[in-house]
Amino acid sequence: MQTSKEMDVIAACVIGGVSMNGGRGSVIGALLGALVLSVISKALPLVGINAIAQNTVKGVIIVVVIVLNVLTQRMMDKANLENREM
Predict the structure, then answer these.
(1) In a domain, 1, yes or no
(2) What is the pLDDT of residue 86?
(3) CB-based contacts of 28: which residues, under 8 Å, 6+ apart?
(4) Considering its fold, how many domains does the chain have in total?
């Protein structure tokens, strides 16, 4: 039986702080993201959530973390730009 774990790997990296644009992130962050995702993946079946809903939850987590990453990056870029102008 072959299972594809690409979504889990991407989710773990994004949760760990790796930027989808590249250039940012750390191995420790990716490992912590994998730990968080593993806990989520093990807890969802215990609560009684099926496999399709588990993938949906992982997808929502990826989208939320990406949006937070983009917003944080924009705020940092804006602050850096304001500091340069002074």
Answers:
(1) no
(2) 61
(3) 16
(4) 1
